[in-house]
Amino acid sequence: MSERQAAGGAADVDAGALAETLERARAEARAIPRLTDGADLDVDTAYRVQRAGIDLRLAGGERLAGVKMGFTSRAKMVQMGVDDVIWGLLTDAMLVESAVDAGRLIHPRIEPEIAYLIGRPVRSAADVDAAVAGVAVGFEVLDSRYRDFSFTLPDVVADNASASGYGVGAWHDPSRVGSTANLGMLMEIDGRAVQTGSSAAILGEPARSLPAAARLAEEAGIVLEPGWVVLAGAATAAVPLPAGAHVRVTASRLGSVEVTT
């Protein structure tokens, strides 16, 4: 049984109020104490806070654009004491075309990703493999709203799994790319290699994140829509994202994607 399944009720927690606290912190780029320092927050309730926060962004005119997977390495699962992945939701406002304003973030970090493009509606895990229309190298910009980048499992879930922004390179036909199980990956900042690794760090094969994403979406009553992106998880540890930097992420057979700050 996963920690999410085993968690208790915490019915007295005001998910909407906690979501507003996190959203204000994001908008003001202001670090706040962990929610669990003042609230009896379990993982199920944390997902309610996450969803309420996304609803605030949708009410402000943003649109859902995909999902991001977290804790997709065995080492991270062990560190956090869980046996299942977590997820967050992406909106169109999180898409980074060419530049990210690190000055508007609290603890900006960046990590290399493998991204998948959804080509048809996905209503269950059984649908997802046939629904993938593209695969690309990508990156995710992380930004925890918590002071000192310190959080518990419920805290990070409530904070939309630290999602802040993402970018993807050119989309490739999955049938031409073949297996994504062991693609060499490199992340450079200002021409200097800061992380090297393999896509195998993502559940052994990044594509395994797809049924997990579909399962969690189904549990949440969400359909993965055509045009949505699934970020499969980080291939390496995230690194701080300084202002005035040029970042390039490269993956074997997938090319590269670049971003500046």
TrEMBL record:
A Pfam family that the UniProt record links to this protein: FAA_hydrolase
Annotated source species: Actinomadura rugatobispora
Residue ranges of every copy of the Fumarylacetoacetase-like C-terminal domain listed in the record: 108-259
InterPro entries per record: Fumarylacetoacetase-like_C, Fumarylacetoacetase_C_sf, Hydratase-Decarb/MhpD_sf
Listed name of the protein: 2-keto-4-pentenoate hydratase
Keyword DNA-binding: no
Keyword Lyase: yes
UniProt keyword terms in alphabetical order: Lyase
